[in-house]
Amino acid sequence: MLIVFNPTAGRRRHRRLAQALATLRAKGLRPELAETERPGHAIALAREAAWRGCPLVVAAGGDGTIAEVAAGLAGSSAGLGILPLGTANVLAWELGVPLAPEAAATVLAEGAPRWLRPGVARFGDGRMRLFVQMLGAGFDAAVVHRLDLRWKRALGRGAYVLQGMRELGRYPFPRFTAALDGGPAQEVTSAIVTKGRLYAGRHLLAPAARPGEPGFQVALFPRGGALAAALYGAALPLDLLPRLPGVVLLPARRVVLHGEEVPVQADGDAVGRLPVVVEEAASPIRMVLPRG
Ligand SMILES: Nc1ncnc2c1ncn2[C@@H]1O[C@H](COP(=O)(O)OP(=O)(O)OP(=O)(O)O)[C@@H](O)[C@H]1O
Question: How many helices (H) and strands (E) does the chain have?
Answer without folding.
Answer: 9, 20
